[in-house]
Design brief:
The chain has helices at residues 12-27, 43-51, 69-87, 99-110, 133-143, 152-160, 174-182, 192-195, 217-232, 246-256, 270-279, 289-297, 311-316, 326-338, 340-346, 358-369; strands at 3-9, 31-37, 58-59, 91-95, 114-118, 146-149, 168-170, 203-208, 236-241, 262-265, 282-285, 301-303, 319-321. The protein is an alpha/beta fold. Strand 4, helix 4 (99-110) and strand 5 form a beta-alpha-beta unit. Bound molecules: uridine-diphosphate-N-acetylglucosamine and uridine-5'-diphosphate.
Length: 385
């Protein structure tokens, strides 16, 4: 009889990173996989489900404007418990660090089920940054039975916390699997504006910022610096797909509206996003996923946070932590705009995060864990990081 897996996720990045694994499980003879979404995100989740043609068996549809973390946790916990009772899966697969991830892992534990944690072990070791993701990921990790660590560092973090090495597999990050499918050389964007940008004569800066801990003064600082850059450097096109969170939009639009060189657009379809990244000069972002994708494409990233749980890109030199103060963001962005030597130093395509086969390794690890294959999959160890 086939093993029964239930993949649970709720937000855009989880969907992007779980999609390649679901595709593989759907073809498997040994493991059957059903999908439950909490829909902690709605439009931004649906964009990804449609791109990867995933039709969830369960949709809890929990998103509401301005709901608190406790609201999300309670609704997700109760909803997922019902799905687990109905489906009775052998293993629940969760991803990363969202509140859906934590709630799904907790519901699974309460029902005595095993949990597989994809993208396990990333840490800043600072409880408040990123908030609440650092703790969500830790809690999910302590509830998990099998840990799919994307890098060696992530595995080391888990070992340090006492996790048994037998249960940790280094797989690479599934985001690179997704990127391999989406990025094309002669890509035509589905968002018309993006086809009209002059990528050759202009320097395109791609911006995203949505983190909870940045909402307020830090996001205002970020926006004011973007405005200053656009006013000072006439060869820039700044493209900012703005997250649907009303608390983000109410800060971003009043500061950045009305400048010809700043394009405030709705969140992009992931294929558009990945290809835009591929054509941009550099990125300004507080996102986690973009810190993994951009190095693979050789695009410098200035990270609008004080700490990162993804140090591999920083060590490789493609990613620089710049925080959220206006002076430092301006100084570092200016360097990448005017100084080719500085730019070229960072614009090295490096890929500490994966080779496009992470989902395959996760699948094999599951088969090994359940004794279906005898040989342990080889860890993904690209080089020293
Ligand atoms: C969530 C995750 C964060 C992840 C991010 C990815 C938590 C606590 N946070 O943060 O880890 O980095 O997703 O983007 O799990 N909204 C819409 N439509 C959408 C999506 C969001 O309108 O498709 C609005 C809603 O009003 C919603 C709000 O954005 O209430 C915030 O969404 P929420 O999932 O609570 O937090 P994010 O900041 O998106
Ligand atoms: N992304 C997207 N459209 C956008 C912005 C981001 O498809 O308009 C993708 C991006 O390429 C990456 C993921 O969403 O794969 C990152 O999601 P987000 O920044 O929301 O979350 P985080 O990674 O910070 O948890």
């Amino acid at each position: 009889m086939k093993l029964k897996a239930l993949a649970v996720f709720g937000t855009r990045p989880e969907a992007i990173k779980m999609a390649p694994l679901i595709k593989i499980l759907n073809k498997s003879k040994e493991i059957g996989c059903k999908v439950a979404v909490t829909a902690q995100h709605r439009e931004m989740l649906d964009q990804v489900l449609s791109l990867f043609n995933i039709k969830p068996e369960y949709d809890l549809n929990i998103m509401e404007e301005k709901q608190t973390l406790s609201d999300i946790t309670i609704k997700a916990l109760k909803g997922i418990e019902k799905v687990i009772i109905q489906e009775n899966p052998d293993i629940i697969l969760v991803h990363g660090d969202t509140t859906t991830t934590f709630a799904a892992a907790l519901a699974s534990f309460y029902r005595g089920k095993r949990v597989g944690h994809v993208e396990a072990g990333l840490r800043t070791d600072n409880k408040w940054f990123p908030f609440p993701e650092e703790i969500n990921r830790k809690l999910a990790g302590s509830l998990a039975d099998i840990h799919f660590a994307p890098t060696k560092k992530a595995k080391q973090n888990l070992l340090r916390e006492g996790v048994s090495p037998d249960t940790i597999f280094i797989t690479g990050n599934t985001v690179i699997d997704a990127l391999k499918v989406t990025v094309k050389k002669d890509y035509t964007f589905s968002t018309a504006l993006l086809n009209d940008i002059d990528y050759i004569n202009k320097k395109v800066i791609l911006v995203t910022a949505h983190r909870r801990e940045n909402i307020g003064q830090p996001l205002k600082n970020i926006c004011k610096t973007i405005k200053r850059l656009a006013e000072e450097f006439t060869n820039l096109e700044i493209i900012y797909p703005v997250h649907y969170n009303p608390s983000v939009r109410s800060i971003v639009f009043p500061i950045l509206n009305g400048n010809d060189r700043i394009h405030l657009i709705d969140p992009l379809d992931t294929r558009d996003m990945h290809n835009l990244m591929n054509r941009s000069h550099f990125l300004l972002t507080d996102s986690g996923g973009l810190q993994e994708e951009a190095p693979a494409l050789g695009k410098p990233v200035l990270v609008l946070r004080d700490v990162t749980e993804r140090p591999e890109g920083v060590e490789a030199g493609t990613v620089r932590i710049v925080g959220t103060s206006q002076d430092i963001i301006y100084r570092e962005a200016k360097k990448l705009i005017v100084n080719d030597r500085e730019y070229n130093k960072m614009a090295e395509a490096v890929n500490p995060y994966g080779d496009g086969y992470a989902s395959e390794r996760i699948y094999k690890s599951l088969l090994y864990y359940y004794g279906i294959i005898k040989e342990r999959p080889v860890d993904y160890l690209p080089y020293t990081v």
